[in-house]
Amino acid sequence: MNFENKVVYQIYPKSFYDSDNDGLGDLQGIIEKLDYLQYLGVDYIWMTPFFPSPQRDNGYDVADYRAIDPRYGTMEIFENLIKEAKKRNIDIMLDMVFNHTSTEHVWFQKALAGEEKYKNYYYFRKGKQDGSAPTNWISKFGGNAWEYVEAFDEYYLHLFDKTQADLNWENPEVRDEIVDILKFWMDKGVYGFRFDVVNLISKPEYFEDDEEGDGRRFYTDGRHVHEFLKEINERTFGKDERIITVGEMSSTSLDNCVKYAGADSHELSMVFQFHHLKVDYKNKQKWELQPFDFMELKQLFDTWQIGMQEHHAWNALFWCNHDQPRVVSRFGNDQQYHVESAKMLATAIHMMRGTPYIYQGEEIGMTNAYFTNIHEYRDVESINYFNILKAEGKEEKEIYHILQERSRDNSRTPMQWNQEAQAGFTKGTPWLQIIYNYKEINVENQIHKEGSILEYYRELIRLRKAYPIIAKGSYEPLLPEHTSVFAYKRVYENTSMIVLNNFYDTETKVQLSETGYKEILSNYPHADMEETIVLRPYETRVYYKEN
Ligand code: TEU
């Protein structure tokens, strides 16, 4: 594996930097910020989709896989972005949405026109005898997962929005189209691919009601998913070891992820799984809140780290992305211990075994948006669930509290570059409101500033390159019973590392029977390793020794 010590920076182009002041971030804006990303020290830039799209799901509804949406720029600008990034030793990772297309894609339009070839690119099925949908499956964005087409007296499947029709991967012509699309971008010098909800691409042969749930058990990690991934690996990116791939796995299992990202699986380089980001879901329901379950969080980290390492499989390590609330607000303390908790959370992830992903703004401790009015929201899922929760009779005050905690718009507010109007993101009107705290939390306030969150992230990246143990070391849990500290040990050849993370705003003690370590990183003034260590609120410490 040639990617163990690499770090990926995720950009949501719509919110990163607006070079032409139309209120939307764009590709030229990313070019203009490449020096910043080089300073940070990242190796890859993952950009969420910027292909032509009606933007119903902010680009995850793709209408043309081989072009650039004019909102974001041109193919010439994209090719320049690749070239300029390469000059800075940064490679580009594209986000490929192959579970579904936009219903405005020409394939779906031809299907609607009755062309059988293209109807077979999707899942069109007759309804039940009573005329209702083929199954009771529920879309991830609420409502039934089937949409009726009167002209055919049939329904088509959409696991997400009704404008996102699921592709039929059982059809070899669909797989051929996907192979061609991947080759098109590989030929342009793209050296990374993120595959959106790729563990949903294999559907059952027969569609039936789910009497126990929302239908996901029928299509998640489906019967042919590994076969399909092996096929596209072998026909495209598997031919070039410089290309890294990551699969977004929705509601998956460790057994499957060991296969998806096994060193010898010839499927993907690594996986995103989300179990650690559901420990604050009451009854495992995203839109029901509960305080996060710290012991479950630790247990999940330990299980996945050990499980994947035992099978030489590779994790993507992350807290944040464009679908998740900001981690410093979610699991940290964005008020009294904003800096300390942001640094602690970063350390907890970056010192583990896997490839860390930094989501834009995470490196400066950007917080949730705390919007107070539904008109401030833009995300289709958030707006749908505002209406669903209202229909369920919830008070608006409670609904706004839930949205403030859960909405995907929390992570989609524009990047906060400086204290100027609109945080330096645009000179126009931003598509989504800038967060109120941008004058305090922005790049300019932190870059080159000792002790800032930004400089701390730079140090985490530097350590990953300087200490092979971080990329190559084994992982073993420490203090599994401790109720406020997440600790683990790394070992590699004659070196070892101990990482301690106090997840709470109270001081706590830990006993370690280890000696001879020196502290190489902390979010508090340095302290030696004594037998009894007192960790201050949200204190993190990284100890290292060469035996
Ligand atoms: O996300 C799929 C996914 O599992 C999460 O989006 C989650 O289900 C959703 O946020 C509801 O909680 C991927 C993309 O990351 C997301 O932005 C897209 O909306 C989705 O797929 C459909 O393409």
From TrEMBL:
- Its Enzyme Commission number(s) read 3.2.1.93
Q: What keywords is this UniProt entry annotated with?
A: Glycosidase, Hydrolase
Q: What class of enzyme is it?
A: hydrolase
Entries under Gene3D superfamilies matching the protein: Glycosidases, Golgi alpha-mannosidase II, Oligo-1,6-glucosidase, Domain 2
- A single Gene Ontology molecular function, please? alpha-amylase activity
CDD domains reported for this sequence? AmyAc_SI_OligoGlu_DGase
Pfam families found in the cross-reference section:
Alpha-amylase, SusG_C
- The UniProt record lists the keyword Transmembrane helix: no
PANTHER family according to UniProt: ALPHA-AMYLASE FAMILY MEMBER, TREHALOSE-6-PHOSPHATE HYDROLASE
Concerning its family, UniProt says:
Belongs to the glycosyl hydrolase 13 family.
Query: Which protein, by its recorded name, is this?
Result: Alpha,alpha-phosphotrehalase
What organism is this sequence from? [Eubacterium] hominis
Gene (UniProt) = treC
